[in-house]
Design goal:
Largest sheet: 5 strands, parallel
Helix content: 40-55%
Shape: globular
CATH class of the largest domain: Alpha Beta
CATH architecture of the largest domain: 3-Layer(aba) Sandwich
CATH topology of the largest domain: Rossmann fold
Number of domains: 2
Number of strands: 8
Radius of gyration: 19 Å
Length: 287
């Protein structure tokens, strides 16, 4: 496996994410200097899913790394939709909280959409509300869903010109596939969205100049699906550090490719952190 450290083909998400975090840190320092305020991200975790707990811990650590505070809100697995909604509303009204992250997935008996909608748009730093998604499809200034927004930053860092390119998105989730398509469209790409019901998915992916895989199935994208010279972004993660793309086979044909881990993941977290700093700047009249 290629570690990507000195490889011109590999998009190094850790390196680019560090630049995003450095930028966020300077925003945090400005808030402290000009308003005496330390930005705060509330992280809401329902139940005890180990992967979710790990993600929340990573996000809290990144907050601490750049001098931002995080407020952990941990709720039992048996929490009802009403209890979760009222807790999120309380955070929405708390002036000391600048951004709210509800770690998903939540336990199956909870209405996740109702919980997301309790987040006020000004604090929707994870880009999950219907308002945020709607504004984003209209191309208006809003906090984007963190994974697709991070992917856009990564493509920009590697000078990938999307105008007129054919981008194929694999997956249509409301926090990844759909917003990814909107952002690519906004960048003047021609976008095809494929999903579990798409017929002969490989033939569509083979036409792509840019592939974004977000299905959550290990090695779903075969090497021979990759057009020579295509840019391959792997937003999937399965057990054993496997992405959605058969990396070695795709690597041979791609002009640029993201590794798993160390590609999209660090960008997602860095985007969340910077968007929380931006939310604080807006709330304190500095942006």
């Amino acid at each position: 496996m290629n570690d990507g450290a000195h490889d011109h083909k590999v998009m190094d998400g850790r390196l680019v994410a560090q630049g995003v975090l450095d930028r966020a840190q300077s925003k945090v320092e400005r808030l402290k200097r000009e308003r005496g305020v330390t930005p705060c991200l509330a992280t809401v975790l329902v139940g005890n899913d180990p992967a979710s707990a790990t993600y929340v811990r990573m996000k809290r650590k990144r907050c601490a790394d750049i001098g931002m505070t995080s407020l952990p809100v941990e709720m039992p697995a048996a929490t009802s939709t009403d209890e979760l909604v009222s807790e999120i509303r309380r955070l929405a009204q708390d002036a000391s909280v600048n951004g709210i992250l509800l770690q998903h997935p939540v336990p199956g008996h909870i209405d996740e959409r109702a919980a997301f909608e309790a987040i006020t748009p000004a604090k929707d730093v994870d880009g999950v509300t219907a308002t945020g998604l709607g504004l984003m499809w209209l191309g208006l200034n809003v906090f984007g869903s963190c994974t697709p927004a991070g992917i856009m930053s990564l493509l920009q860092a590697y000078a990938v010109d999307l105008a007129g390119k054919h981008a194929v998105v694999i997956g249509r989730s409301p926090i990844l596939g759909k917003p990814m398509a909107a952002m690519l469209l906004e960048a003047n790409a021609t976008v095809t969205i494929t999903h579990s019901r798409t017929r002969d998915i490989g033939s569509l992916v083979r036409q792509a100049d840019v592939i974004v895989a977000a299905v959550g199935k290990a090695h779903f994208v075969k090497g021979d699906w990759v057009k020579p010279g295509a840019v391959v972004v792997d937003a999937g993660y399965s057990e054993g550090n496997k992405g959605d793309v058969d990396y070695d086979a795709a690597y041979a044909r791609a002009s640029l490719i993201t590794p798993v881990p160390g590609g999209v993941g660090p960008m997602t977290i860095a985007t969340l952190i910077e968007q929380t700093a931006d939310a604080a700047l807006r709330q304190h009249g500095l942006m």
